[in-house]
């Protein structure tokens, strides 16, 4: 129920629709009870049991309400029919039609308004989840499978709408329908109604027993759905490699195992759920059968109840069955919804450890430099950087080199504050980056990574990602600096060409040059290049390297390099090993020192 309350908070902006739903549900419940009670005068006319009353009856209190209602209806039928009993029948039938018509109109209006609330909550939860996904640190998603996150924002949110939010319809309508119906039943016969209520709690206990394990089963189904969505996402991302290594059958087997588990869990869940409807219906019929026997005895032997009232009473009793079944189904919905809500709220309530402190500074300029002081950082247990110190003065290019796993890319992740340091501090112009807002910090930086992250959109939109109001002239100028303009003009629609999912319609070098154009257009004072040329062929590398050199002019740059030939002009080259600086200086100085850097250069020269 705790999850239900948290989800209900999303309904607050749509409360007016909730109020209208409640109002029309009250009217629906009232007319539902009255429509069955109106059967009594019609049956009296049919059985010729209508008492001829020429004076309107007097109201004598709640205890005599049934007699007053019956007397009033008999008076109306007497007035209307005169000599022709068919006129009385037409009046009674017309009354029933009127009540049933308005009952259904109010039912439609109640459902009409709740639709806005349900779909509004669905929209807001999805928006909130997407916003949260964008806000959470990169480290959060290294522990979560993409498919599982996709399952939570799609099917789990939909499950909340189907289960929790459908209960909003039941909270007012079904209990009130039962309440009003019971009131009318008490008015018709107190003795018979008390007898009915001996059986209802027994039926309720049996139904509740069935649903105890439903939340657990539902949780397993939703987790498995996240599992096979992850497999689909990985398959689509790595289709080229899967085909190249003839691994189709292996991936198909993994997917098949996941869908088989989903099949078993779903069968178990749905069969348990499906048991509720026939069980509650059978128990309802048992109650109904006992009621026929007991009520029939009151009519035929005791004479304490007339036949018309008893038939209407049976209609009212049957009127309780539908909302009672809906309430029993809703209890299953709560259990299923609980599992889905738990998974959705896990993301929504996740704390982002990398957040702006109170009073964080909006930094718009860069004046002196970047400094990493005594920085220590670990992803899990072991430190990747140990007491790391580095200074990058404004306008200078510092290159980080070393073997894989030496901590080069970690420096880029820390400077951009994708992760926070465990020890020490990082300063920009003497200010700790934790005291600068994340947005303004990243606004000072341009990032070009080894993997060119592009989006399924036009060339123009991909370049303008960091500057939404960029003019076409600015976009073209940035593309020219990145050596991208010529190949863009050769595309079918030039700058308006859609580049496909992840830019798959372009070559590696073309994608990388678009990434550089994007960084150039943003025009930040600090550039971070994370192995920007390592995945390229020689010709593409030359074009990209030329673009990078143009871009780095008059900028402060941190270059993480795999190919040492690309960083020989750097002001300072920092050689890293196991999270520590083992050597630093210019290319010429390091070659003379005849240590780690020279060995790396010779290895690459020999390899090429």
What would you say this structure looks like, in words?
The protein is α/β, with parallel strands linked by helices. It folds into two domains: 2-14 and 116-348, ABC transporter type 1, transmembrane domain (ABC transporter transmembrane region fold); 369-607, Rossmann fold (3-Layer(aba) Sandwich), CATH 3.40.50.300. It is 63% helix and 10% strand. The chain contains 22 helices and ten strands. A six-stranded mixed beta sheet has the order 6-7-8-3-9-10, with helices on both faces. The longest helix has 51 residues, at 85-135.
> Mean pLDDT across all residues, rounded?
79
Residues in helices, as a percent range: 55-70%
Number of helices: 22
- Which sequence of strands runs across the widest sheet? 6-7-8-3-9-10
- Outline: elongated
**Number of beta-strand segments:** 10
Poorly predicted sequence stretches spanning 5 or more consecutive residues: none
Radius of gyration over C-alpha positions, nearest whole angstrom: 37 Å
CATH class of the largest domain: Mainly Alpha
Main beta sheet, described?
A: 6 strands, mixed
How much of the sequence lies in strands comes to 5-15%
Content-based structural category: alpha/beta
Could you name the CATH topology of the largest domain? ABC transporter transmembrane region fold
Write a concise keyword list for the protein shown above.
2 domains; alpha/beta; four-stranded antiparallel sheet; ABC transporter transmembrane region fold; 63% helix; 10 strands; Rossmann fold; 608 residues; elongated; six-stranded mixed sheet
């Amino acid at each position: 129920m705790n999850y239900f309350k948290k989800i209900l908070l999303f309904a607050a902006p749509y409360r007016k629709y909730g109020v209208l739903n409640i109002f029309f549900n009250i009217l629906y419940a009232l007319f539902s009870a009255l429509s069955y009670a109106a059967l009594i005068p019609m049956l009296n006319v049919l059985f010729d049991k209508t008492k001829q009353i020429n004076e309107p009856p007097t109201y004598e209190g709640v205890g005599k309400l049934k007699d007053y209602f019956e007397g009033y209806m008999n008076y109306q039928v007497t007035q209307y029919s005169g000599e022709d009993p068919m006129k009385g029948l037409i009046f009674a039938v017309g009354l029933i039609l009127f009540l049933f018509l308005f009952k259904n109109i109010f039912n439609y209006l109640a459902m009409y308004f709740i639709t806005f609330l349900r779909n509004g909550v669905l929209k807001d939860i999805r928006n909130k989840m997407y916003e949260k996904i964008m806000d959470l640190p990169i480290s959060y998603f290294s522990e979560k499978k993409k498919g599982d996150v996709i399952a939570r924002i799609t099917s789990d949110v939909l499950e909340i709408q189907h289960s929790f939010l459908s209960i909003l319809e039941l909270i007012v309508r079904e209990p009130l329908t039962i309440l009003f119906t019971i009131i009318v039943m008490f008015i018709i016969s107190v003795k018979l109604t008390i007898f009915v209520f001996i059986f209802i709690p027994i039926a309720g206990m049996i139904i509740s027993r069935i649903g105890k394990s439903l939340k657990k089963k539902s949780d397993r189904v939703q987790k498995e759905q996240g599992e096979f969505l992850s497999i689909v996402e990985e398959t689509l991302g790595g289709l080229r490699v899967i085909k190249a290594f003839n691994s189709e059958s292996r991936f198909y087997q993994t997917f098949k195992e996941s869908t088989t588990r989903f099949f078993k869990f779903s069968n178990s869940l749905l069969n348990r759920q499906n048991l509720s409807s026939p069980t509650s219906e059978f128990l309802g019929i048992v109650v109904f059968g006992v009621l026929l026997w007991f009520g029939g005895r009151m009519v035929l032997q005791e004479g304490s109840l007339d036949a018309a009232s008893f038939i209407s009473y049976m209609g009212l009793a049957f009127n309780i069955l539908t909302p009672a079944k809906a309430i029993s189904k809703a209890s299953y919905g709560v259990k299923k919804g609980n599992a889905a809500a738990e998974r959705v709220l896990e993301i929504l309530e996740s704390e982002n450890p990398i957040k702006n402190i109170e009073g964080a500074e909006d930094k718009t300029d860069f004046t002196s430099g970047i400094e990493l002081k005594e920085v220590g950082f670990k992803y899990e247990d072991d430190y990747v950087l140990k007491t790391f110190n580095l200074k990058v003065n404004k306008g200078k290019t510092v290159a980080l080199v070393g073997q894989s796993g030496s901590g080069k890319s970690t420096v880029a992740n820390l400077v951009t504050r994708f992760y926070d340091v465990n020890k020490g501090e990082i300063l920009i112009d003497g200010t700790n980056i934790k005291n600068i807002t994340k947005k303004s910090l990243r606004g000072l930086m341009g990032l070009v990574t080894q993997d060119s992250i592009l989006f399924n959109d036009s060339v123009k939109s991909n370049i303008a990602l960091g500057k939404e109001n960029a003019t076409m002239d600015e976009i073209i100028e940035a593309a020219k600096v990145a050596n991208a303009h010529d190949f863009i003009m050769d595309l079918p629609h030039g700058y308006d060409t859609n580049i496909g999912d992840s830019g798959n319609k372009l070559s590696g070098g073309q994608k990388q040059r678009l990434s550089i154009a994007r960084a150039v257009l943003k025009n930040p004072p600090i550039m971070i290049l994370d192995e920007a040329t390592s995945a390229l062929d020689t010709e593409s590398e030359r074009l990209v390297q030329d673009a990078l050199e143009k871009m780095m002019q008059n900028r402060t740059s941190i270059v993480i390099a795999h190919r040492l030939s690309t960083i020989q002009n750097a002001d300072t080259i920092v050689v890293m090993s196991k999270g520590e600086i083992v050597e630093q200086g210019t290319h010429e100085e390091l070659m003379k020192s005849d240590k780690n850097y020279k060995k790396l250069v010779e290895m690459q020269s020999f390899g090429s």
